[in-house]
Specification:
- The complex is a heterodimer of chains A (509) and B (251).
- Chain A has 509 residues and is mainly α.
- Chain A is built from 22 helices and no strands.
- The N and C termini of chain A lie far apart (50 Å).
- The model of chain A has no long low-confidence stretch (mean pLDDT 81).
- With 251 residues, chain B is an alpha/beta fold.
- In chain B, helix 3 crosses helix 4 and helix 8 packs across helix 9.
- Classes of the chains: A mainly alpha (509), B alpha/beta (251).
- Chains A and B meet through helix 13 and helix 17 of A and helix 2, strand 6, helix 3 and helix 4 of B.
């Protein structure tokens, strides 16, 4: 048994908390849910292996002597995955500084703040690695099964990527602390995390739009320009790609670099952890003076008062804005594609419409949760002289208006290009937003807005229903815009999903 | 004297059951312009009773009348004249007190000019002027409670219902809250309040109801309650303990 307050003791405490957190995230505390979650995970793993077989089986016999296009392809995929890991790690590192859960207890104890910090960063790295391994495992397993054990080296690359992502997240967050101060770091780190998560994909898509007129990121990676400017084939830059396919020397190098850089970052930054955590704690009591939004009280209907309240709260909650920023950022490439093809006179709506409709559905789902479930003063609203029906209507209107405002420019430009496609797209956006809002209405709970991150855990059925209805409605819209009667197929699927949601809705019970 | 006053709140045979009965066949009458304190041990059913009155819970049986309006069949009209304040103030962190009061006034459909005048008055009374245009996110519990109280009063309710409003407040803030409530009662409003601080009930309430195991076991002025105990109890604390002990023996 380890000594209290030692590194191993703190680590076991931290990992126990992490494990319980993860289990409650998956099971939401119910024994039946635990069994269902286990069945769901097995089914998901099986599905992912089938998907992996479909996508990577043909690469299983690839030789170690890669050519430049193959190295660019693998490296691009690794950088893409790493950027997502970095985004996730930045959010976790920021939370480690600002979350007060047990930090007050630990920092006021005689335990070393450096050890606490080291363990906490280790936990974040481990979490990043576990997520990456879970997502990469089906692909690696399929490649190893078909192409031999050499592919198992990819697991080592994933570990190194998780360590490097945590180290980079740590360096970025500490740099923000020093440059912009504790008060602004939380918001800026969230925004930076969202941008990093989306930037690489968006960058590739933008490059592809300009070079190939396509939104496919692989088109950019295999472009002549990219291949001409790639480093020499013997460069250490390709070590991660080589390590993935079984080059032991490269694997050892990548692993040593990843773990070494994480240890160095922890050693370098742990000295001032307590100082930064204390500075972060002071932020919660900071005063924000608000410019008055009007010269006096205004005469408005109850519905308008409620809608205005929703918009004001969303506009002022930078933390929530950063959570939804990535969804909005993903709209940039389709918008750019629209602009480029509009200029060149091509029909771009076939690519554009599904992306936009799906984004609208996802964004509306998040906003609807905030508005309907994330009510910070539920008793005030419930004791107000207004019916529940009117309250819900006002909240739904607030969401739909916001979606309409965000997507109106894209629809307007599309209508200038192809009127019918623009109309169909607008209708699809509103339908997807309405469907996502209906799902959130059916599965509404009472929560605080700050619990937004965990909205998916309250009902996995709602999460999947939201995603699949968005996909079905995206397909419906693009087929309808093309004038095809086959649009009725995905429309029927979307309707069936919503009917199922309605029939099992807990709020109707 | 009491009989001449209008009835502000009437509960008849109100019952609510969760895993076990929380409130059983409760009859309660509170008159207009009265300060009524509801006291009782933990889990006695005080909060459940108040939450049923303000419409946050629906009773399994019985009727609730607020200012002559059946609140179960016409909740919106009943809520128009009611305010609710719980021990955990629920306000919007991202709004300023001024904006919060504008929101509440809009929700209660109060004329903007009138509401703004009241809001300024309340902000002054409660000492919130220096913070009127700061977001509530950095406020202490006492300040949040003051903002919530101002919100409860900005629509000039006839019936104010408070659940442990003084919990966690410092002496100065607690006195301000008590003064504001007394002021409302003097102006003809009705206040119903639960509290564990028996001294507050003793000093402020016109009548006190003692609730235990979901039933009203005693009610009246402090003198009435003393007489009911039949002992030489002097303070409300002695009286309360004697009444609760008697109820336990009877059960």
């Amino acid at each position: 048994m380890s000594q209290p307050a030692s590194l191993t003791w703190l680590a076991s405490h931290e990992f126990r908390l992490g494990w319980r957190d993860w289990v409650s995230l998956i099971t939401a505390g119910g024994r039946t849910r635990a069994r269902n979650a286990a069945i769901g995970l097995v089914a998901f793993a099986a599905f992912m292996h089938v998907f992996a077989y479909w996508t990577v089986a043909s690469y299983a016999d690839a030789s170690l002597a890669f050519d430049t296009p193959a190295l660019v392809g693998i490296t691009g995929t690794l950088v893409l995955s790493w950027s997502l890991l970095l985004s996730q790690a930045m959010e976790s590192v920021t939370r480690a500084f600002y979350s007060r859960s047990d930090l007050d207890l630990i920092l006021t104890s005689p335990a070393s703040a450096r050890k606490v910090f080291a363990v906490r960063m280790g936990r974040i790295a481990a979490a990043a690695v576990v997520i990456a391994v879970l997502l990469a495992a089906p692909f690696i397993n399929v490649l190893a099964f078909l192409g031999g054990g050499r592919w198992l080296g990819a697991y080592g690359v994933v570990v190194a990527m998780g360590a490097m992502a945590t180290a980079a997240a740590l360096a970025l967050t500490i740099a923000l602390f020093r440059v912009v101060g504790a008060r602004r770091t939380r918001l800026i780190a969230q925004v930076v995390a969202a941008i990093i998560g989306a930037a690489f994909v968006i960058g590739l898509q933008i490059a592809a739009i300009f070079s190939a007129g396509s939104i496919s990121r692989f088109a950019a990676m295999q472009s002549d320009w990219m291949l001409a400017h790639a480093p020499n084939i013997g460069s250490a830059f390709w070590w991660p790609a080589r390590a993935v396919s079984g080059d032991h020397f490269a694997l050892v190098g990548v692993l040593a670099f990843g773990i070494g850089i994480l240890c160095a970052a922890i050693a370098l930054f742990s000295r001032r952890f307590g100082e930064h955590a204390v500075a972060a704690a002071g932020v919660s009591s900071a005063t924000v003076r608000q410019r008055r939004w009007s010269l006096g009280f205004r005469r408005r209907s109850q519905s308008r008062v409620l809608r205005q309240k929703e918009w004001t709260l969303l506009q002022r909650d930078a933390w929530l804005i950063s959570q939804t920023l990535m969804q909005i950022l993903y709209l940039l490439p389709p918008a750019l594609l629209l602009w480029v093809t509009f200029r060149d006179g091509h029909d771009s709506f076939v690519v554009l419409i599904p992306v936009v409709v799906m984004a609208a559905g996802q964004l509306a789902g998040g906003l609807a949760w905030l508005s309907i479930s994330g009510e910070d003063a539920p008793e005030l609203i419930a004791t107000g002289p207004i019916t529940t029906h009117r309250v819900l209507c006002a909240k739904v209107e607030a969401v739909i208006c916001m979606i309409a405002l965000i997507f109106a420019p894209i629809v307007a430009v599309l209508m200038l290009d192809v009127v019918f496609a623009g109309l169909a797209c607008g209708l699809g956006i509103l339908t997807a937003a309405a469907a996502a809002t209906l799902i959130q209405l059916c599965f509404r709970i009472q929560a605080r807005r700050s619990q937004f991150r965990r909205r998916q855990t309250s009902s996995r059925f709602a999460t999947f229903a939201e995603a699949f209805s968005s996909i079905a409605l995206a397909a419906t819209t693009v087929l309808a815009a093309s004038g095809s009667w086959t649009a009725l197929g995905p429309a029927a699927i979307a309707f069936a999903i919503l009917a199922a949601v309605w029939s099992i809705s807990p709020s109707r019970a | 004297m009491k009989q001449n006053r209008p009835i502000a709140l009437a509960l008849r045979g109100v019952s609510k059951r969760f895993d076990r009965p929380a409130v059983e066949a409760l009859d309660l009458t509170v008159y207009g312009g009265e300060f009524y304190a509801l006291v009782g041990p933990n889990g006695a059913g005080k909060t459940t009773t108040l939450r049923m009155i303000v419409g946050l819970l629906r009773p399994d049986a019985g009727s609730i009348c607020i200012e002559g309006v059946d609140s179960l069949s016409d909740p919106v009209t009943a809520k128009q004249v009611t305010a609710w304040l719980s021990d955990e103030p629920m306000i919007y962190d991202k709004l300023t007190p001024y904006e919060y009061l504008e929101f509440v006034a809009g929700l209660w459909r109060i004329e903007p000019d009138m509401a703004e005048g009241r809001a300024r008055e309340l902000i002054g009374w409660l000492g919130l002027e220096p913070h009127a245009h700061e977001r509530c996110e950095g406020f202490s519990k006492g300040m949040r409670q003051k903002v919530a109280l101002a919100g409860a009063l900005v629509h000039d309710p006839k019936l104010i219902i408070l659940d442990e409003p003084l919990t966690g407040l410092d002496a100065g803030t607690a006195r301000q809250v008590k003064n504001v409530l007394r002021e409302r009662v003097s102006a003809g409003g009705t206040v119903i309040m639960t509290t564990h601080i028996l001294e507050v009930a003793e000093r402020m309430a016109d009548r006190i109801g003692v609730i235990a195991s979901g039933r009203l076991i005693a009610e009246g002025t402090l003198d009435d309650l003393r007489r009911q105990t039949g002992k030489g109890a002097t303070s409300l604390e002695d009286t309360f303990l004697a009444l609760v002990a008697k109820d336990v023996v009877a059960a």
